[in-house]
Amino acid sequence: MPQVIPQLINGQWQASNARELIEVTDPATQEVLALAPKATHEEIEAAIAGAKQAFFSWREVPVPERARLMLRYQHLLKEHHDELAEILAGETGKTFADAKGDVWRGIEVAEHAANICSLMMGETVENVAREIDTASYIQPLGVCVGITPFNFPAMIPLWMFPLAIACGNTFILKPSEQDPLTPNRLAELFLEAGAPAGVLQVLHGGREVVDALLTHEDIRAISFVGSVPVGQHIYRTGTQHLKRVQAFAGAKNHMVIMPDAPKDQVLSNLVGASCGAAGQRCMAISVAVFVGESKQWIAELAAQMAELRPGYWKDSGAAYGPLISQQAKQRVQKLIAEGKAEGAECLLDGSHCEVPGYPDGNWLGPTLFRNVKPNMSIYREEIFGPVLVCMEVDTLEEAIELVNASPFGNGTSIFTRSGGAARHYQHAVEVGQVGINVPIPVPLPFFSFTGWKGSFYGDLHAYGKQAVRFYTETKTVTSRWFDDTPVSGPNMTIQLK
Ligand code: NAD
Fold first, then answer.
1. What residues does CATH 3.40.605.10 cover in the chain?
2. How far apart are CA 26 and CA 31, in angstroms?
3. What CATH code would you report for 3-250+451-477?
4. Bridge pairing between strands 170-174 and 21-25
5. Reported ipTM exceeds the 0.85 cut
6. Is 282 part of the annotated catalytic residue set?
7. Ligand 1 atom 18: the closest Cα is on which residue?
8. What is the reported pTM?
9. Domain covering 253-407+411-436: architecture
10. What InterPro entries does this protein map onto (predicted)?
């Protein structure tokens, strides 16, 4: 009988009283790995109250001590890198190498959080008026919440809680109900690193738990990563309840291929960036825009994609794993069928894909369309599967126009040998993360993850300096110290100098 996973409340792993349980399955076999509870009202209240209480003492812990906690945590995460990747691969189906990458990208954020002392430095100006100085400090907000998606169950929780907590906040994590085992293990290691009780709480469940957190008066800030409709709901509801919200949402990322680009580089980068992790990455390339004569490479692209073989996470020859759920697979199959019905040319159809030994897996083969038009659903919707659509244009200007007309703005890349074309593209394109001959330009944690337009609701982005500003408030102190100069009477006007 699969175990019901516990929740972390006030430093204790507690069994939930939930009546409703969610199955966590291995997407390659449908084996039920565990059951996740849907946190009850009382458990949500207890987690919030405990986090609020813990904040009063945690905010007083010296910043270097908070930094040292992150150093120990980073060390433990590295020690448990393989173990975390195995848990992650088991519940997501990602290949082991890709699962290690997911964990690694998170470790890098914990590493960055260990620099919190310099990140928390404020500003000072001496003599803003005669013998008066002004200093600004940043202070934590209170209880912050993180709501995370299924596709990076290590990296995305780690985008959030290490920095929020290093800033002096307490944090409630509500991970995806589809793969909560990795986040639970991350939290266990955080306790082992020395995190005091209540500083990190973990609640499980879906919409009802999220809504209770979004509307609770004791929550100050919400970080969300997930799909567009849920992101819009989170942003609207959270801000309506007067909270600070950053909501990272879906994407449709274009790669622009200039005819002067090195063909072999283009093709191998396109294959990896579109089908890696079965296309279930918010920065996956899902649209290839061939400019001019580069369209002649599409047949070769199809041949290279056809060689990809999905497989079980322990199979070192597998290019990628299954889709996260049967529903996700059916949704992608439906979109592939719609693409054909709408008149796109399907060069490779992965709708019916079998992996020997794993008859029940949510497999999809690599899928490639050409002659795709902007009004087709395979262009308009985020597919989130190993599906690449090809568009053809005559000029770079047309490519820019196409990309800028998209409602999304997460990532894009251009492949070219021309510095002028690349410079023009990076300047003109309305997308927050641009790669030049780099297919998936995810910034490392000392920058920030800067999606734009429909891929992000809010203003301050994830990790880096922007996250420190998101998780803190600025306090400005203006001070003067008296000497023995006689008082010249009350000052009734604003001083002009
Ligand atoms: P999702 O929106 O279904 O779920 C995300 C989280 O929201 C989960 O914790 C889930 O429990 C919760 N949730 C789901 N429905 C809800 C509802 N109606 N009300 C309140 N909460 C709800 O997303 P997913 O399928 O887990 O993840 C895939 C999506 O995430 C893709 O669209 C992908 O592009 C996006 N994503 C974006 C980024 C980014 O940085 N922009 C990064 C990773 C993933």
1. 3-250+451-477
2. 5
3. 3.40.605.10
4. unpaired
5. yes
6. yes
7. 207
8. 0.97
9. 3-Layer(aba) Sandwich (3.40)
10. Ald_DH/histidinol_DH (IPR016161), Ald_DH_C (IPR016163), Ald_DH_N (IPR016162), Aldehyde_DH_dom (IPR015590), MeMal-semiAld_DH (IPR010061)
What distances in angstroms separate CA 463 from CA 440, 460, 468, one per listed residue? 17, 9, 7
CB 22 within 8 A of CB 203: no
Burial of 64 (0-12, 13-18, 19+ CB in 10 A): exposed
Taking CA atoms only, the protein residue closest to ligand 1 atom 19 is 207
| 3-state class (DSSP) for residue 487 | coil
Structure tokens at 177: 């109900």
Distance (angstroms) between ligand 1 centre and the Cα of 173 equals: 14
Cα–chain center distance at 56: 29
- Measuring CA to CA, which residue among 439, 388, 452 is closest to residue 255? 439
- For 78, 158, 241, the CA distances from 232, given in Å and listed in that order, are 35, 22, 14
Contact indicator for 409, 386 with CB cutoff of 8 Å: no
**Would you give per-residue pLDDT tens digits along the chain (497 residues)?**
899 999 999 999 999 999 999 999 999 999 999 999 999 999 999 999 999 999 999 999 999 999 999 999 999 999 999 999 999 999 999 999 999 999 999 999 999 999 999 999 999 999 999 999 999 999 999 999 999 999 999 999 999 999 999 999 999 999 999 999 999 999 999 999 999 999 999 999 999 999 999 999 999 999 999 999 999 999 999 999 999 999 999 999 999 999 999 999 999 999 999 999 999 999 999 999 999 999 999 999 999 999 999 999 999 999 999 999 999 999 999 999 999 999 999 999 999 999 999 999 999 999 999 999 999 999 999 999 999 999 999 999 999 999 999 999 999 999 999 999 999 999 999 999 999 999 999 999 999 999 999 999 999 999 999 999 999 999 999 999 998 888 888 888 887 76
User: Where in the chain are all domains bearing CATH 3.40.309.10?
Assistant: 253-407+411-436
Q: Exposed, middle or buried, 370 (CB in 10 Å: 0-12/13-18/19+)?
A: buried
Residues with CB under 6 A from ligand 1: 147-152, 174, 176-177, 206-207, 210, 225-227, 230, 233, 248-251, 282, 382, 384, 410, 449, 451, 455
Angle at CA 171, nearest 5°, toward 214 and 90?
95
